[in-house]
Amino acid sequence: MKKVLCTIITVVMLLGCACAENVTAELWQHEAGWISFSVALAQEGLEEVWEESAKVFGENLGLNLTGAQLKVMMMQGYALENGVDDLLIEGNHFTGKTKDGAELFGHEYSWVETLEEADIMGGKKIYVFKTEEADAKEYTYLLMTEPLRTENENTAYVTFNMFHTQKDAYRDLFNAKKTGTAAMPCAMIEKDTGRDGLAYAIVQLYTSPIALK
């Protein structure tokens, strides 16, 4: 079970990514907004895809898994994320909420810098945004990967990863030696992703070969 959960967590951390100087929030603007990847995939109506994917995923690990079990494992990994379930970006205004609709933050943010260190998220670019609002607390800094579109000839979905912190020493988020454990990102997907796109995302996650380093 521990091996399966660790694999799922690693998969989630591989989601999202791919820029430009003088970065604006336009890259992440989407009319419908964004929703937590795990919450989106856990919705009803995808049970058949979960069952098919669990069979393949379980066989690859030498386990007998049902779709319901695999979904529970995914949500256990989601519980370790640092918690924004709903995100809307309008201009430079970012609004984050829980899945129950409680507002976590709603502030104007501006780009600070782009992290490109090879030891951060496998070399993916991380775009750092900051608000000057004093009450932002742990949402003072938002760190985001570039949205990544995953597609085949029939459908597609778009994801990115987001971290947040109150401190300007945000590189520590990626340094397990300083934090005790590496931070888990909020993996986000476009909120209006259709059922076919969500089904494709499940298949990509749990039936495609993944090289874990």
Question: Please, could you describe this protein's structure?
Answer:
By secondary structure, the chain is an alpha+beta fold. It is 29% helix and 25% strand. The chain has helices at 2-14, 37-41, 47-61, 67-78, 176-179, 195-207; strands at 34-36, 86-90, 93-97, 103-108, 110-115, 126-130, 141-145, 148-151, 156-165, 186-190. Helix 1 crosses helix 4 (67-78) and helix 3 (47-61) crosses helix 4.
Helix content: 25-40%
**Largest sheet, described in full?**
10 strands, antiparallel
Strand element count: 10
User: Which blocks of ≥5 consecutive residues have pLDDT under 50?
Assistant: 8-20
Radius of gyration: 17 Å
Number of helices: 6
- Average pLDDT over all residues: 86
Strand content: 25-35%
- Compressed to H and E, one letter per element, the order equals HEHHHEEEEEEEEHEH
